[in-house]
């Protein structure tokens, strides 16, 4: 007892640390350190603050405090505040058009459901225990578009289209079966299925056969479902607004990455024909402005097509955008490939990996990781470039915004809709950009040397 | 590699699925292919009040849209079998030439070069326009001849720009053009004092002025510096189709001359007041059949859109926001001092 007492008496007991003096921490100190460290800095801060105050104040005055929130026509807005305040009722009235274009209002749920399907399709990618993420991602790229095409377009399904739509349904069921099985049972869907059928101990060949039959049955069921599935046709001329922008840029983006990878590999290939063809494709589409390509595909292509073929205008625009984006993406990816040291290729060869295996396992993952900022930059550029389709008469978000000011009721209203469009573009582009930064951080874990 | 093929196949198939519609062979006559398709591809421009206006519900209306509706009604008796193709002026003629549009109804000026060198056929004039100038009242300017040295806002890439230069050169005056391809931007520039005058077709000036904070503070100068006969256009080489569009248009004018309206057309068809009306409405003769249309096609047209005067008053007349008076202008009937003079329907 006495010993303990002595010990406590002898041991150095630091006092709890006092908080740093107010002058060295807290917002005031931060401001002093960063904003007012010396006279020029303080002057710049004041100037910047003043400019910010004036600009933000003016925008707020116009957009919020001085704005008209309820009116029947622009004339009412003008009579109320003149041009000093924004006139939001016009934008509100047109907002459905700016989002869905001229898509029949009573059928808009189909567009929503189509995008909801996409969200559901990729939701398993965010489930922690799901391991087949690559397959799910690939299926979203390859099979979802068929399902979406029927949601959006509807109408009479041809045989070919029916086959693909059924594949889309099949893919969706597979994704969720896989996700649930992996998330909750912790094993692939195949095993869960075999267990349920009591065929776990069957021979490998039999197991494979059973799984194939199950997949085929599911496909037949999906096919039967398409026979019963009948939606009213909505021609692509009625597609528009944000919806159309997302369709065009979505297809462009999903097409451009794989196509760009193949073109980049093709250009670096040792086989002269492949390399020449890839180079020719890339250089042709990269050295012509997108607007020219769109014009070419839109107005010239029908002249070259055999008589009687009528390729939809939206399809032509999408193909043009895809080719253009692929050519640009190919060069971005080639840049990534060139950054991979020769040693990596040699190491892969020495492990006995062939061309495709080494590309898939060693080279491409590194190249893509390096190029994430450039790839996402390309995506964002493409997303905004799709506004050019308005020139060939597709009613994308921009042309819809422009149409507001030509409505007899809201004649001349054009700053407000463009303001809203700018915000919509900002939200989408900023989301893409933030996602890419998150992805970079995640992939750089343990590798980043600062 | 297999994966890449699958990707290509997938993208191809989606788009194929979305979009392969049964094609219209060019070898057919336009009327046949339109009938086979089941709807009329009518090209209009980017939304423009009065002529091809788009409202928030997504419906097209206007003086030119009524021409599309009238042709649709003439063919099927239903004015709504129209797919409106809203296209920028840059591609309007190629879109017609490559067979995508069956006709244009989009305030296109009839000029010699367009009619003779671009493979186009102008059918009739449904609106006589002319270029004018809009100036603020307090500028004190009362005549275009006082605009020497002015800066003038003008749409780029149109005949408007060329007419402007011609007019100033012909009168030995100087001016500085301020150009943009967006009307709203130009109007905003003009209202902000960025130019002394704004020039466009007078119908367009009237429409824009109606949306100014104070319309009475601006005045359209009396001078008309160009001739702008606007009318529907078809592809050259199918005269039968051009005839249909032309005579549907003339029919609407003839109906106004005879006093046949949307309201009384049924009654008039039942007991025509005279041989002219009887021929127009297909009660006598077979003008319609000769054109490949039902004999009573004008009855359908008039039931759908009314006569020319009714269409005019509905879309651009004095009681609309556009407010272009008709009486005494070129657009009045020839019997009322205008030059709208339909050839006889016989």
Automatic annotation (TrEMBL), chain A:
Q: Which UniProt keywords apply?
A: Cell membrane, Membrane, Transmembrane, Transmembrane helix, Transport
Q: What's the domain of life for this entry?
A: Bacteria
Q: Does the keyword Heme apply?
A: no
Q: Name one Pfam family in it.
A: BPD_transp_1
UniProt-annotated location(s): Cell inner membrane; Cell membrane
A molecular function annotated in GO for this UniProt entry is:
transmembrane transporter activity
What GO terms describe the biological role, i.e. biological process, of this protein?
A: amino acid transport
- Topology of this chain in the membrane: Multi-pass membrane protein
Q: Which residues form the ABC transmembrane type-1 domain?
A: 242-432
For whether the record's keyword set contains Transmembrane, the answer is: yes
Any one GO CC term of the record: ATP-binding cassette (ABC) transporter complex
SUPFAM superfamilies the UniProt entry points to: MetI-like
- What InterPro entries does this protein's entry cite? AA_ABC_transptr_permease_3TM (IPR010065), ArtM/GltK/GlnP/TcyL/YhdX-like (IPR043429), MetI-like (IPR000515), MetI-like_sf (IPR035906)
The membrane-spanning stretches of this chain are: 42-65, 107-127, 134-153, 159-177, 210-229, 241-265, 277-297, 317-337, 370-395, 415-439
Q: Which family does it belong to?
A: Belongs to the binding-protein-dependent transport system permease family. HisMQ subfamily.
* Alphabetical list of NCBIfam families matching this protein: HEQRo_perm_3TM (TIGR01726)
Protein name according to UniProt: Amino acid ABC transporter membrane protein 2, PAAT family
From TrEMBL, chain B:
Under the heading Pfam families, the entry gives:
SBP_bac_3 (PF00497)
Q: Which keywords annotate this record?
A: Signal, Transport
Q: Where does the Solute-binding protein family 3/N-terminal domain lie? A: 41-268
Which terms does the UniProt entry file under GO BP? Answer: amino acid transport
Give the source's domain of life in one word: Bacteria
Q: Indicate the transmembrane segments per the record.
A: none
Asked if Glycoprotein is a keyword of the record, the answer is no
Q: Which CDD domains match?
A: PBP2_BztA (cd13692)
Q: Where is the signal peptide?
A: 1-27
Q: Which family does it belong to?
A: Belongs to the bacterial solute-binding protein 3 family.
Record-given protein name: General L-amino acid transport system substrate-binding protein
């Amino acid at each position: 007892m006495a010993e303990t007492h002595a010990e406590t008496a002898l041991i150095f007991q630091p006092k709890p640390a006092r908080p740093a003096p107010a002058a060295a921490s807290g917002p005031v100190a931060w401001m002093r350190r960063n904003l007012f460290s010396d006279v020029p800095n303080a002057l710049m801060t004041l100037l910047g603050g003043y400019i910010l105050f004036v600009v933000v104040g003016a925008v707020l005055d116009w957009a919020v405090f001085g704005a008209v929130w309820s009116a029947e026509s622009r004339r009412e807005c003008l009579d109320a505040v003149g041009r000093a305040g924004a006139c939001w009722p016009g934008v509100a009235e047109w907002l459905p058009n700016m989002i869905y274009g001229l898509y029949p209002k009573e059928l808009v749920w189909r567009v929503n459901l189509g995008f909801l399907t996409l969200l559901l399709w990729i939701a398993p990618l965010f489930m922690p225990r799901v391991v087949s993420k690559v397959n799910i991602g690939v299926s979203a790229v390859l099979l979802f578009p068929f399902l979406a095409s029927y949601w959006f377009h509807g109408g009479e399904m041809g045989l070919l289209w029916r086959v693909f739509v059924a594949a889309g349904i099949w893919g969706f069921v597979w994704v969720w079966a896989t996700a649930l099985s992996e998330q909750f049972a912790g094993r692939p869907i195949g095993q869960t299925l075999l267990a349920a059928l009591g065929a776990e101990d069957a021979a490998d060949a039999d197991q494979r056969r059973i799984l194939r039959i199950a997949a085929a049955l599911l496909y037949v069921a999906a096919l039967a479902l398409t026979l019963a599935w009948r939606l009213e046709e909505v021609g692509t001329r009625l597609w528009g607004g944000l919806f159309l922008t997302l369709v065009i840029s979505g297809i462009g983006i999903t097409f451009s990455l794989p196509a760009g990878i193949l073109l980049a590999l093709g250009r670096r290939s040792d086989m002269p024909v492949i390399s020449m063809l890839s180079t020719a494709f890339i250089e042709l589409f990269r050295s012509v402005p997108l607007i020219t390509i769109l014009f070419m595909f839109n107005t010239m292509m029908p002249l070259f097509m055999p008589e009687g073929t009528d390729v939809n205008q939206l399809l032509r625009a999408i193909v043009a955008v895809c080719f253009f984006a692929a050519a640009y993406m190919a060069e971005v990816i080639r840049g990534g490939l060139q950054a991979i040291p020769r040693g990596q290729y040699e190491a892969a060869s020495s492990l006995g990996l062939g061309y495709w295996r080494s590309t898939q396992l060693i080279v491409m993952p590194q190249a893509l990781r390096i190029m994430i900022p450039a790839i996402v930059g390309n995506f964002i550029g493409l997303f905004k470039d799709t506004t050019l389709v308005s020139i060939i008469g597709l009613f994308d978000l921009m042309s819809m915004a422009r149409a507001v000011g030509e409505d007899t009721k809201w004649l001349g209203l054009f700053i407000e809709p463009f303001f809203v469009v700018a915000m919509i573009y900002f939200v989408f582009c900023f989301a893409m950009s933030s996602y890419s930064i998150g992805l970079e951080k995640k992939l750089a874990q343990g590798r980043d040397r600062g | 590699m297999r994966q890449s093929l699958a990707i290509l196949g997938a993208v191809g198939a989606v788009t194929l699925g979305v979009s392969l519609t049964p094609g219209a062979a060019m070898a057919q006559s336009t009327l046949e292919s339109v009938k086979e398709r089941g709807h009329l591809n009518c090209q209009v421009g980017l939304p423009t009040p009065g002529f091809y206006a788009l409202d928030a519900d997504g419906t097209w209306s206007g003086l030119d849209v009524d021409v599309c509706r009238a042709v649709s009604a003439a063919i099927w008796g239903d004015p709504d079998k129209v797919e409106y193709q809203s296209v920028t002026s840059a591609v309007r003629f190629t879109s017609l030439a490559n067979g995508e549009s069956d006709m244009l109804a989009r305030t296109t000026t009839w000029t010699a070069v367009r009619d003779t060198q671009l493979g186009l056929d102008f059918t009739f004039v449904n609106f006589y326009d002319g270029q004018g100038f809009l100036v603020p009242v307090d500028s004190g300017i009362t005549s275009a001849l006082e605009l020497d040295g002015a800066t003038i806002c003008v749409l780029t890439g149109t005949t408007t720009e060329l007419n402007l230069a011609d007019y100033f050169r012909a009168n030995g005056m100087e001016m500085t053009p301020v150009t943009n391809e967006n009307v709203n931007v130009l109007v905003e520039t003009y209202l902000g004092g960025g130019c002394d005058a704004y020039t466009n077709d007078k119908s367009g000036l009237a429409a824009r002025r109606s949306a100014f904070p104070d319309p009475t503070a601006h005045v359209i100068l009396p001078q008309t510096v160009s001739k702008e006969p606007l009318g529907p256009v078809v592809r050259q080489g199918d005269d039968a189709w051009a005839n249909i569009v032309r005579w549907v248009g003339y029919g609407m004018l003839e109906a106004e001359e005879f006093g046949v309206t949307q309201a009384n057309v049924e009654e008039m068809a039942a007991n025509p007041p005279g041989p002219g009306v009887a021929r127009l409405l297909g009660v006598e003769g077979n003008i319609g059949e000769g054109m490949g249309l039902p004999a009573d096609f004008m009855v359908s047209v008039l039931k759908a859109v009314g006569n020319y005067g009714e269409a005019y008053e509905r879309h651009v007349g004095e009681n609309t926001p556009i407010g272009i008076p008709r009486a005494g202008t070129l657009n009045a009937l020839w019997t009322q001092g205008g030059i709208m003079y339909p050839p006889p329907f016989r």
